[in-house]
Amino acid sequence: MPPPADPTRFVLVQPSHAGNVGAVARAIKVMGFHDLVLVAPRWPDVLQRDEALAMASGATDVLAAARVVPTLAEALAGITHACATAMTPRDFGPPVYAPREHLAPLAASGHRVAFVFGPERTGLANDDVYRCQACLSIPTHPDFGSLNLAQAVQLLAYDWRQALGGFGVMRRTPAAQRADAAAVDGVLAHWQAVLQRIGYLNPAAPKKLLPRLRRLLQRAEPTVEEAHILRGIARAVEQAADGRPLRAAASQPAQGRDGLSG
Questions:
Q1: Alpha-carbon distance 257 to 207, whole Å?
Q2: N or C: lower Cβ tally within 10 Å for the chain?
Q3: So what's the pLDDT on residue 5?
Q4: How is the chain split into domains, by residue range?
């Protein structure tokens, strides 16, 4: 399936490490982007090199579709707003913004946007920065602002995706079923009987033990399975109090005829 149409391009100027190119491909794909252009890379076959393919790790389709061009002017063809990324202060050039400050209004502008990254060792040359309408500076610790190329791409790709609307969080586990009031009452009644049996609770002077236990359970909001576990523990206490051997708890508690885990 071809990637969806996208107004975003990521441009790497003179990248020198094939592994970084592969890692960049992965970084933009996980944020839903696919358009990658390389300007005069150190290795003409960088998109096919083993290091790039290994670091792409599932984003080899981005590498396969990437283009290599000789100049930044060609890389920016069709782009209406280019953002340079530069850490080095300059006394002349486009205005400098923090990414989120600039990207939020840019997302609503309808521009075709490019993010331009310079060589790993030197960063973008002044002439390349001058071709861009804005310069983005990722806020980092003032004493150590060095970012790996793929890290910088990942941060900007994330912020840009959020500015465009972001993706919903996918549930990795099913929603838990909360124990209802009757189940909580059952847990408390079971533990009341057990605590009386072992002498911890004096029925003649219960004080506020049971209301406090109820508050604890209400704050915890136990699931149905957790309520079964609490009653299973109560049963084990009863067995120990009677001197009966304990049964090992099952990894998945079974529900018996009395509604307790077996």
A1: 33
A2: N
A3: 59
A4: 8-164, 175-262
Residue whose pair of structure tokens reads 């604890």 in the numeric block: 216
Phi, psi of 83 (to 5 degrees): -110, 115
188: three-class secondary structure by DSSP: helix
Q: How many CB atoms lie within 10 A of CB 96?
A: 15
Q: Which CATH number fits domain 175-262: 1.10.150.20, 1.10.565.10, 1.10.8.590, 2.60.120.1140?
A: 1.10.8.590
Which helix (H) or strand (E) element contains residue 159?
A: helix 149-164
Of 123, 144, 109, 127, nearest in space to 136 by CA: 123
For 21-37, what is each residue's pLDDT tens digit?
Answer: 999 999 999 999 999 99
pLDDT in tens, 160-178: 999 998 888 777 778 889 9
Count of Cβ atoms closer than 10 Å to residue 114 Cβ: 26
CATH architecture assignment, domain 8-164: 3-Layer(aba) Sandwich (3.40)
